Amino acid sequence: MFALVGVVATGLYVAGVAQLVDFALIGAGAVAACVAGPSLLDFRPGRAWRTLGAAGAFMLTGAILRPLVVPHGSALLAEAFTVPGYVLVIVALADFAYGRRAIDRHSVVDGLIVCVGAATAFTLLFALPAMSIPDRPVVLSVLAALYPTFDAILVLLVVMLAFSTAARLPSFRLLLGMMVLIFIGDLAYAIIGNQGEYYASPVLDLPFLLAFTFGGASALHPTARELVRAVPLPVQPWSLARLAVIIPAVAAPFVLTVAVAPRTVPERWIVGTGGAVIVLLLILRAVNAVQANAEAQARFEYQATHDELTGLPNRRRLTGILEDLLADPAGRGAVWVFFLDLDGFKFVNDSWGHPAGDRLIRSIGQRLRDTLPADATIARIGGDEFVVVRRGTEAEALAQAQQIVDCVEPPTRVGPAEVVITASMGIVAATRADDDAESLLRDADTAMYRTKAAGRGKWTVFDASMRQAVQERLEVESALRTALAEDELHLLYQPIVDLESGRPRGAEALLRWEHPEKGPIGPNVFIPVAEESRLIIGIGAFVLRDAVRQLAAWRAAGVVGDDFWMSINVSPRQLTEPGFTAMVAETLRTHDVPARCVALEITESVMVEGGDISEGALRDLRALGVSISVDDFGTGFSSLGYLRRHPVTSVKIDRSFVSGLGGSASDEEIVRAVVAMSAALGLAVVAEGVETTEQRDVLGRLGVRLCQGWLWGRAVDARAFADTWGSREQAAVS
C-alpha cells in the first residue's frame, strides 16, 4: 500500500500537482516506516532502520528547504540538513553490514576497489570542477566536493551488502533500489553543480522522491527482518557477479586518462593515485583469494576428518592414526583399541529429544578428553560410539579401561533431568603382524557386543575365540539366507491348553530350521543372527503367512473351532517396517481368517525401546482386531506403566518362573503378582514351559487358566497336531 501511494504521489509530482505536498507526504511516510517498521513487524534489532529513518528526516528537510532558500542565497541552510542526512545513511548501511557479518575481507577489498574507482571518477568529474567555480563561498565549494565522497563511501557499503547475501529478498532489493536512486539524484545535482547552480528544477528531486518510496516499502516489507541476518553467499572469490562490478572500477582511472586527459597537477595526481591504489588492492585481493582457498581447503579437510558435534577425530581420521601407529614398531608398548558404546543413549533421545542426546554426546566427549592422557587418541565414529587408541602395556591398558568406564557413569544433565548412563566397552591389542586398522576396530566392536550380552557397563578383552564366533555367525547368516530361499524353514505347533477343560484354546507357531548337512539348528542360534542381519523381516513374513494359512486350513477342515487362535512371534524390527500392519491385514483377508483369531507375541523390549513407530504399529494392529501378547513376561523391564501405555491383551509368564513352582516360594509369589496385576488390567495370562502336573496344579490354584509346555507334548507339525488335538470329542487331559 505504501508503494502504491508512492507511485500515485510520483505521478502527481510529475504532473506538477502539489509537488511540495507530494514530496513531504512520501518523505514523512518513509521516515515513519523506518522508525515504526521494527515494532510493527516485530524484528530485532531495529537500530539500523531507525538510523535510516533519522537520515530520511534530515534529507527530507534539506530537500524541502532547497527550492525555498536557494533563490534567496541561503543554500547553506539546506546543506546543513542534507549533509548530516548522508552521514546517517552511511551509518545505517554500515550497521546493516555489521549485523549481516558482511565485513569480511573479500567484501571489504572488493568494496574498496569499487569505492576507489568511483571516488577517482567522482572527484575528477565533479568535485574538482565544483571547487574551481569562481565567486562562490568556500564552504559551499567544499560541501559540493563532499557529496562525491559520500557517494563513494555509499558505493563501498552497498557493494559489501550485495556481496554478503545469497538471498535477494524483496526488502533487500528495494533498499538497493533506494541507493541507486540516490546516486542518480546526486549525479543530476553534480552536473548542475559543475555549472555553479544549486537548484534548477523540481524534476531533479524526482529520484529522491522515488528513493523515499523504495526505502519506506523496504522497511515495511516482512523480509526486512532478514536484512540484519547473515546469509552466506556461495560464490567463487572471482565470480562473474563480482567481476561485473569490479572491472568497471578497475578500468575507471585508465578510461579517465584517455577520455578526460588530465591537464593539471591535481588531476594527474588523483588519476595516478586512484590507479595505484586499485592495483595494490587487486594484489591484496589475489593474495586474499589464495589465502581463502588455503583456509577453505584446511577447513574441508578438518570437516572430512573430524566429528562435527564433538570436534573429535572421525572414523576416517582414526583409521589413518591407527595405521601410522601400526607402522611404527619401535613405539613403546602395544597398540590398544578401546571401543565403547553408550548404554541407554536411545532412551535419552526418545525421552528428551535429539538436542538432549547431542548434549550428552558432547559431555561424554569432553569427559574422555579430561580423563585420558595427551598421547591417547579419542574419536567418535558413530551415533553413540567412541574409540580410544593408545600405546601401552597390558597393565596400563586395563587400568585405562576402568578409567574410561568410570568417567562415563557420573550423572549428566540433559533437559529437565539428570541421567546416569553406562558404557559397554571392547578392548583389543595389536598382537599379529597382519593386524590393520579395520581388523582391530572390528575385533574391538565384537568384544564390545560381548560385553553388552554379558550385562553392560563393563569391558571385555577380545580373544581369538570371539573371532571364531564371528566367523561362525557369518556362516550361519550365509546358510540362513540359503535356507530362506530353499524352503528349509518350517513351522511346528504347540497347543495352548485350557486347564479346566483340558482342550486347546490356541496354538503357538514355532519356527524350526533343518539344515541339510548339520541337521536341526536351534532358534537360539539363528534368530539373533536373523535379527542382526535383518533377515528376520523376510523370515517373519514367511512365519506369519504360513501360520495364518495353516489356521485357515484347520478351520476349513473342522480341526479347530471358531474361537481357536494362532499365536505368532513378531520381531521388533518387523514392527518398524513400513506396511507391516497392511501386510497382516492382507494375509488375514487372503485366507479369510478373523483378526480375533490371531495373537501376535512381542518381547518386553518393544515396549521399552520400540519408540513411536513401534507404538503406532501396535495401535494399528489392535485397531485391526489382532490380539497383542507380551512374551517371556517378567524377565526384562516388566512394568505396570508399560502395560498400561501399550495396547496389550495378554501376558505370557516366562518358563523361568514356572519351573520353580512347587519348590520356590518366591516364584509362586511372582506368578501370583503377575496374575493379580493382569486381572486388574483386564489381561489374559498364559504360562509357558509347564512340564509337570505339580506345576500345572499350582498354576491352576493361582488362577492361571491357559498353559502350554511339554506336559501336553512337544511342538509338532500340522498333521500331527490335527491328529492329536483335532477331535472335538477328545476327552480332557487329566
UniProtKB/TrEMBL annotation:
Domain GGDEF: residue ranges: 333-464
Every EAL domain range: 473-729
Entry keywords, A to Z: Membrane, Transmembrane, Transmembrane helix
Residue ranges crossing the lipid bilayer per the database entry: 12-36, 48-69, 75-96, 108-132, 138-162, 174-192, 240-262, 268-287
Gene3D superfamilies, A to Z: 3.30.70.270, EAL domain
PANTHER family reported in the protein's UniProt record: BIOFILM ARCHITECTURE MAINTENANCE PROTEIN MBAA (PTHR44757:SF2), DIGUANYLATE CYCLASE DGCP (PTHR44757)
Listed NCBIfam families: GGDEF (TIGR00254)
Designated name of the protein: Diguanylate cyclase (GGDEF)-like protein
